[in-house]
Specification:
19% strand, Protocatechuate 4,5-dioxygenase, Chain B, globular, 414 residues, three-stranded antiparallel sheet
């Protein structure tokens, strides 16, 4: 079988003075990482399943002018296979085994607790309550239960709580009445390692430090019946190591505590294809099926739709040549405010068109969940609930921008 490199994480680095690429497994099938010298980078690019070892050597020499011995290529292929980085039968068996183990577990265990937020429920509750109190003060909002029916959706960050805390506090303070009265929460999270143009659901319930947030399997089953089981549950294992949905569910559970709201956790893959080709995601089968079922469900049950989404990722840490100075940060802020203004109209196609205007140069990390939230909701308008530029490098020259937005029924919005 011709070697084919599967979807893995690649990061440029320098190890012991030698530039190279670190390979890591986004599915967590193993704990191995591989360092490949930068000179062999073109060899990795040739591993698309169309060449055997001999053709890989030939292709490498044609592209670089450097001959490779069979021992070098064979050795690298063995290492890649041992680390489960090749798309082959061994990798397929490992995915099947890990998925079965994931599905047999009592729940999907938290991955943020004890890392990016406290694992102790009392300590975590105190942290979130502090953010909420500051958020209410910043927004000048009360918690009148009469406002609950107005709030139908929110954009909440998925960045870690220490950096995003003030914005988290503002958006969840505004949404808290709706959270407490919701009969169902649909959480659309960024799948940082997902493929293009798809969604991955799960029947597994999420766990937080306060206990279990039950997944509404009936809704999941209806989407799977319409879209096809494999189309929306074939990548279920991605939920195991992805934090975006968990971030939103942790906040929602913190507001409900002993009475968690049933949820539909959805991981949303990249929209790069739709941005490049100008096509509408509305024509994609799995996406259309998910929107149809979720829209119908929201029409008959009190549903809160959450897009767990960050905004821009800019600076050298994300591949940009120049660091962000004060002027660049000001330009970023103006661009983000323009995007938020478009979001306020709650038009999913207008939102996507705004990102296409510059070819997504700001790397919006939330395009898919925001688009799908807007597609599910109807008759709403968006109101800002916080904005921040968070450091993404030690020297402060790279930035992740985040926002909070609350989407209100146009019949009640003031």
């Amino acid at each position: 079988m011709n070697p084919r490199l599967r979807a893995i994480r690649l990061e440029q680095t320098v190890h012991q003075g030698q530039p190279g690429i670190v390979l890591a497994d986004p599915l967590g099938l193993g704990d191995r990482m591989l360092f490949v010298p930068a000179a062999l980078g073109p060899l990795l690019a040739l591993m698309d399943g169309t060449r055997d070892a001999g053709a890989l050597r030939t292709g490498f020499e044609l592209r670089t002018g450097v001959p490779l011995s069979p021992a070098v290529v064979d050795g690298l292929l063995r290492e890649l296979d041992d680390a489960l980085f090749l798309d082959n039968d061994r990798f397929t068996r490992a995915v099947r085994s890990a998925t079965e183990e994931y599905r047999r577990a009592p729940s999907r265990p938290p991955i943020m607790a004890g890392r990016s937020c406290p694992g102790d429920p009392q300590e975590l509750g105190g942290l979130l309550d502090g953010y909420l109190e500051a958020g209410r003060a910043a927004c000048g909002q009360s918690e009148s239960p009469g406002e609950a029916r107005e709030v139908r959706g929110v954009i909440s960050p998925h960045i870690d709580f220490p950096r995003g805390g003030p914005v988290y506090g503002m958006v969840w303070a505004a949404a808290s009445p709706a959270v407490r009265e919701a009969e169902l929460m649909v959480v659309l999270g960024t799948d940082h390692n997902g493929g293009e143009g798809g969604v991955n659901l799960t029947r597994q319930s999420y766990e937080t430090p306060w206990g279990i947030v039950p997944t509404d399997r009936e809704v999941v089953d209806r989407i799977a019946a319409l879209a096809g089981e494999e189309a929306v549950l074939g990548g279920e294992l991605r939920h195991r190591g992805e934090h975006s949905v968990e971030a939103a569910l942790t906040w929602a559970h913190g507001l409900r505590r002993e009475n968690p709201c049933p949820a539909v956790p959805v991981l949303c893959g990249s929209f790069d294809l739709f941005i490049r080709e100008g096509a509408s995601p509305a024509g994609s089968g799995p996406l259309a099926a998910a929107v149809e079922v979720l829209r119908e469900t929201a029409a008959r049950r009190r549903t809160l739709v959450v897009a767990a989404a960050d905004l821009a990722h800019v600076g050298p840490a994300f591949g940009d040549a120049l660091p962000l100075d004060l002027a660049a940060r000001a330009r970023l802020g103006a661009q983000d405010r323009q995007l938020m203004e478009v979001l306020g109209r709650a038009d999913p196609e207008a939102f996507l068109d705004e990102i296409r205007r510059d070819g997504d140069q700001r790397r919006i990390c939330g395009t898919a969940p925001i688009y799908l939230m807007l597609a599910v909701l109807a008759g709403v308008m968006g109101v800002p609930a916080g904005y921040a530029q968070c450091p993404a490098s030690e020297d402060g020259t790279s930035i992740v921008s985040i926002c909070g937005m609350v989407f209100l029924s146009r019949n009640h919005a003031r």
